Amino acid sequence: MRLGVLILPDDPWPVAASKWQRAERLGFDHAWTYDHLAWRSLRDSPWYGAVPTLAAAAAVTSTIRLGTLVASPEVRHPVPFARELVTLDEIAGGRFTLGLGAGSGGWDATVLRQPPWTPDERADRFAEFVELLDRLLCHPETSFHGRYWEAHEARTAPGCVQQPRIPFGIAATRPRSMRVAARHGSLWVSSGPRTHDGPPLTAAEGAAAIARQLARLDAACEAEGRDPATLDRLVLTGPVLDGGLRSLEAFREVRDAYAALGVTDLVVHWPRPSPPYEGDEAILAVIAADQAPGGASNRSIDGSQ
User: Fold this and answer.
1) How far apart are CA 15 and CA 104, in angstroms?
2) How many domains does the chain have?
3) Measuring CA to CA, how many Å separate 186 from each of 111, 160, 162, 238, 248?
4) Of the given ranges (94-103, 135-144, 285-294), which has the lowest mean pLDDT?
5) What is the mean pLDDT of residues 264-275?
6) What would you measure as the largest C-alpha separation in the chain, in angstroms?
7) Is residue 303 part of a domain?
8) In a domain? residue 304
9) What is the pairing mode between strands 150-155 and 141-145?
């Protein structure tokens, strides 16, 4: 199982840069950030854009894979976004993964004063958004006339470093979006049940919920004529799923529960000094070292040898 960390884009760059560099130094396989205009309880706090943050992170790292968890059509148009993605992939030297989701209907969905989308419209918009992005990133010129999105002779030269395009990680919990994941995704993404209220699900509870989603994902792959084994599976812990960052033993319980389901990638949040994701950063060195050959004893608490 590969291990990743999600770094909120809320720190000034000198502070943020050290986190991205430390994630690479600790040996995390990938590092991610959210793509929102503002986010939940931090809506009135400092918050920086995902694309420039990832471009800067790419410039100060060299091996770790970088990505969005997730970008959505609520605040993005495929044509200008495709140009930004080609640029990101170039700066990152082919280390970029595009996480995509339909959106949650929160503040991002209302800030542009657009009429609220019904669940069906949200699903339709997302499917068309991903289809157009796929075309834009695979071809030097694209014209597209859809129900929601338009492109007229859009250019994306020189194209992606990764061919035929950057990989898509599709966040999907419902049948329609799972079909999108099966059709276009290199990676399926879930942060657990969409409607959960209350404390984070334990490792066992979370694994049971993800197992049900994986069964639906396999069915979607079958409907699309795709071998489910060719689609990686990423679980993002956080508000819904406990990440086990209290101790190494708690993390191992979480990791092993999802690994037993065939989850290929697990992502935890970088601990913060206050909510959300309040915790001690020192645990990151411990869990990252535990993933390395030889286990946690190979590294000290700060990640040094």
Assistant:
1) 29
2) 1
3) 31, 15, 13, 22, 30
4) 285-294
5) 97
6) 57
7) no
8) no
9) antiparallel
Residue 238 neighbours by CB under 8 Å, 6+ apart: 6, 191, 200, 268, 269, 277
SS3 for 52-80 is HHHHHHHHCCCCCEEEECCECCCCCCHHH
pLDDT tens-digit map of 211-248: 999 999 999 999 999 999 999 999 999 989 999 999 99
Task: Please check whether residue 245 lies inside any domain of the structure.
Answer: yes
The token duo for 133 is: 């992005």
Q: What are the tokens at 274?
A: 């206050």
User: Tell me: the pLDDT tens digits for 146-174?
Assistant: 999 999 999 999 999 999 999 999 999 99
> Is position 144 within any domain?
yes
Parent domain of 83: 2-298
Helices assigned H by DSSP within 186-298:
203-224, 248-259, 282-291
Q: What is the CATH number of the domain that holds 278?
A: 3.20.20.30
Provide the CB-side half-sphere exposure for 254 (13 A, CA): 26
CA–CA gap between residue 95 and residue 80 (Å, rounded):
20
